[in-house]
Design a protein that fits this description.
55% helix, flat, Double Stranded RNA Binding Domain, 8% strand, Ribonuclease iii, N-terminal Endonuclease Domain, Chain A, single chain, three-stranded antiparallel beta sheet, 9 helices
């Protein structure tokens, strides 16, 4: 997230090389890539665009899922939708397009750990979708989303539920009690800690996993049990 300072035609051309679309209005691209901490004299940032882009993305993904999975239940479609529009998914697509170098942000944002910058990259992705929608209409946004979300859309893992929810239901079935989570380790500085969590289920071996937050560590530990017990399959299986 270095904030490469291109503007006008140069920025439009650079972004076009990444996403395959040439904007007619460079100001929309500049706004989409500008965090509030770097707004300065321009007076614009991506916040309003992010609001719009979130809705456009949700609509397009919902439409694609509805057509791509005609036999899926509402619950499965909701799970797939949530996995495709969350911050991690959006930031991953932004990283795949190498958009980080164009993000304009203040020093306080640039100094954050990569994990804590996930939301910024996700916001940028939503703002860019809004810019596409305003510049080229819904079809331009739809083509962009269809192209760069395609692999994720058809991944078996996109249909997975939240691992803690999945594990809780399974644990009730096999043991009659919910999983128990325990923090067993904490490393790293206060501003960027790593937690290790152990999850226990009556009658089964416990499992441990690490994460950048307690919640992430719990999710990873739950996933470890689901994979170990064959409830979930490894990628490619």
């Amino acid at each position: 997230m270095s904030g490469r300072r291109l503007s006008g035609k140069d920025l439009v051309e650079a972004i076009a090389q990444r996403i395959g679309y040439v904007f007619s209005d460079a100001s929309r691209v500049e706004a989409a890539l500008t965090h509030a901490s770097a707004r300065g004299r321009s007076g614009f940032d991506y916040q309003r665009l992010e609001f719009l882009g979130d809705r456009v993305l949700g609509l397009v993904i919902a439409e694609i899922l509805y057509k791509a999975f005609p036999d899926a239940s509402e619950g499965e479609l909701s799970v797939r939708l949530n996995s495709l529009v969350n911050a991690e998914a959006l930031a991953g697509i932004a990283d795949g397009l190498d958009l980080g170098e164009f993000i304009r942000a203040g020093a306080d944002v640039r100094s954050l750990s990569p994990r804590k910058r996930v939301n910024v990259r996700a916001d940028i992705m939503e703002a860019l979708i809004a810019a596409l929608y305003l510049d080229g209409g819904l079809e331009a946004a739809r083509q962009f989303i269809s192209r760069f979300w395609d692999t994720h859309l058809r991944s078996v893992h996109a249909a997975r539920r939240d691992p803690k929810t999945e594990l809780q239901e399974w644990a009730h079935q096999v043991s009659g009690a919910p999983p128990q989570y325990e923090i067993v380790g904490r490393e790293g500085p206060d501003h960027d800690p790593v937690f290790t969590v152990k999850v226990s289920i009556a009658g089964y071996e416990p499992a441990s996993a690490a994460g950048r937050s307690k919640r992430e560590a719990e999710q990873n530990a739950a996933s470890a049990v689901l994979l170990r017990e064959g409830i979930w399959k490894e990628a490619g299986q």
